[in-house]
Structure formats: C-alpha cells, structure tokens
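COMPLEX REQUEST
Ligand: 2-OXO-4-methylpentanoic acid
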Amino acid sequence: MLRPFDPTLPLPPQAAGWDENLRFAYTEVDAFWLTRWTPETGWEPGRLYEHRGATLELSPGANVLYYGQGVFEGMKARRTRAGKIVLFRPRDNARRLRASAARLAMEPPPVDLFMEAVTAVVRANARWVPAPEKGSFYLRPVLIGTEPVLGVRPSQEYLFYVFGCPVGPYMGGDRLIVLSGVHRSAPYGTGAAKAAGNYAACLRPQKIARELGYVDALYLDAREDRYIEELTGANFFAILRDGTLVTPALGSILPGITRDSILTIAREAFGWIAVERKLSIDEVLSDAVEAFYVGTAAVLSPVTVIHYQGADHPIGDGKPGPRARMLRQALDEIQLQERPDPWGWVVEVA
Ligand code: COI
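STATUS: Structure written out below.
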C-alpha cells in the first residue's frame, strides 16, 4: 500500500544508536519517491510516499515478474564533515539507467526526472544520512515494466521509484574464486546493462563462492573462459609489476561509475598509466602485484587471494597493497569534498 508522505507531520523518533554498526541492509526510512509511465500520460509527476510499511501492488501478469524488465541503479548520498549532503556523479547514474532501459526496450526516465527523484529522497530523509565515519545513505533507483502481458513483448506501463537506506560496508572480503562452468554474461548479451537478471544469474555462483570461504566469484569471459570480466556486483582491477593499472575493457561488463572514477583519478590525479583491455586470469596470477574490486556499494577493496583451477594464488605478497589504499583514500576524500574535484563529480543536495 502507498500512503503519500506529508512532511508537515511529526516523524517517528530515531532509535538510539541507529547509526552504530550500520550494515548493508534494506531498512525503511521516512519517504521514498515514485512515478509511473503510460503511453497516454507519459511520465506522471512523481511524489514522495511513506516508506514505512510501503508495498507495491502489481498485477500477477506484470512483465517484470517473468520477462524480467527490471533495471536499477546504486548510488550514495554522503554527509561531509562540513555538514553538507552530497551525491557523486548522479547524472552518470541517470544516463546509465537510460542505457540499461534502452537495452531492455523499456521507457527511460529523463535525466531531470531522475535528478528530481534522488534529490527529493535525500532531502526528505536527511536525518538518515549518517556521519561520514559511520556510513552513507544508499539510494536505489528502480525501473520496472508493470503491464500485464502474456506473450513476450515490452511492457507499455512502467514504475520508476527511488528509495534509500543508511548503510555500512558491503562485502569487504579479500578472497575471490574463479568457478568453472559458469559465466555472468556473454558477448552482445545484457552484461553491460544494470539489469536485475544479471544479478539473478550470479546468485548461485556467489552462494557457492561463499560456502567455499571466498567473498565472491570472479567471472571469466564466456567466449574463451580466460579473460576476467568482473565480480557479482563490482568491477575488477589489477596493478602489474611494471606499475600499469589494468581493468577489463567494457563490452559485456557493467560500465561502473566507480570504475571510471578510479581510472580517471589514476590517470589525471596520480599520472599513472591506466588501461582498459583484455586481462587474462593467467596474466593476473603471474604478473599482478596488487588487485582490487570497486563499486558504489563495495567502494574499493583489495584482493589478496584468487582461487583458480584448484589452488589459492596469492596476489603480490598476499597483503593489501599501497596503491589500492591511495586510490581508495583519494576517492573517499573527493566524495567528501576534502580533495579537489576538477571533474565536477560531487553535487550538493542539502
Ligand atoms: C552498487 O554497487 O551500487 C550495486 O548496485 C551493486 C550491488 C551488488 C550492491
């Protein structure tokens, strides 16, 4: 059920210590934002609804439920030490959602509508944005096809909504495993879209990886089963013996905004050589001195061990490396307006 959010009504008090030991988990806060699209109305004006107890009503025949028209985004609002609330590259999330929607023949929300939605959610829930050392406010913009259909075809009705939750760290482990006989995506498939189905395809490998004591699976390409693609929900980087930073080229992987930021910081702020190209698992195991994974939720975490073909292989000296630490610190400082942002990535919303 949806109840309009009335900002003039008193809000329930926050539990004492709500921001202590935050986990990466779904929690209800004060308000979320929703609009719908039909061919007759186009995008209707969106509005805020009460987040507590909110449920969506869908037809049992809604396209998203079996033909999988569902795409989403992940982004973070952060509270700076100066007390502002900022977003990081939000227009890039909006553009990526539109690209994901286009791949799945869905109606893409305009960038300005996306910005209106995320800004409204952050402002209405400002009291849930944790202090920088406690965590961040994770935003989840979602687009789903809701028209009841029976034959396979695109929906003619869409819901676009944005909710947010205060969160702590996501994943954080440093051991990955390459599983045999499973791929995340294929050439010319949907791997570059942030489509719900891509994550569904990873749930079994991720579960197996965790049961075996690894934080996640590391997927190889589907054509040759040799080149690194990414993790379930993060992009992969290696630093080679000659100092080059390498990350798999785009194509069938998610075009991560953190991935792009790390490449840009490495090249433009640190003057490092950073390349996007094919990166084989053999090259990483024989030549990498550091490895790490990045994403909005994951931020940047070092990889110290990769299991491949029956053996654990340490990366470099098997410890988190200094260059990964430098990149993570730079990203964090830029996001908190504590370091120059010549790219205009940080957007103040409150
Ligand atoms: C993100 O990093 O924001 C994502 O959407 C990845 C998800 C697996 C948490």
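REMARKS: Residues 264 and 274 are 8 Å apart (CA to CA). The chain is about 25% helix and 25% strand.
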